[in-house]
Amino acid sequence: MEKSIIKKTWICVALMAVILVADQVLKVWIKTHLAIGDEVRLIGDWCRLHFVENEGIAFGLSMGGKIGKLCLTLFRLIASIVIIVILARQIKKDSRYSLLISISLILVGAVGNLVDSCFYGVIFDQSTFTHIATLFPPDGGYAPLLFGRVVDMFYFPIAQWTWPDWMPLLAGKEFEFFGAIFNIADSAVCVGVALLIIDQLWLAPAKNDEKVEPKSEESDAQTAGNTAEMA
Known about the structure:
Blueprint (H helix, E strand, L loop, with lengths): L1 H32 L5 E5 L3 E8 L11 H27 L4 H27 L26 E6 L3 E4 L11 E4 L3 E2 L1 H29 L7 H11 L1
């Protein structure tokens, strides 16, 4: 069991390290090569890198005001610590890979955006529509510790249309699918949450069913204990 726990620990750490490095490398490249609103078209018009910044909520959403920004950063910090504890407990229990990977993805996504919120205001100067930011500027950063803005860049405007006149409430309005702008950390959180839902709805019940039908006869108390251990 110890070997299994060590293996799962390294898999989770390696997965999070790769995602976190990729997330931060791309964000630093975006900050130091593009001005706000600049974009790089990767595949036609529908797959782009489009540089925007927000106050820290996923998919380009923002939370206004200094108090709101500070609360959001602190919340993300506390949430990251709580998820670290949960992940450590699940690894110690030798939980299934699907559960551990889902928690790891959620954790690294939270940490990825937390890095922006905590440090980007200190290590970068201001990005504007006409100015490309400098890493470690001699005159200091654009915001104090904990008040940095999150860098977003993935933009997939797959389709755009105008709602017809006969549509109630929406007539004549423009619509874009998919209009959200996000980053690798946001993606990790979303994939982690989706995997966690799959794990809890399908994989966990399947494992519990296996415990209910053991190869040899067991007492009701022992079966209940095994089921509780898998939960």
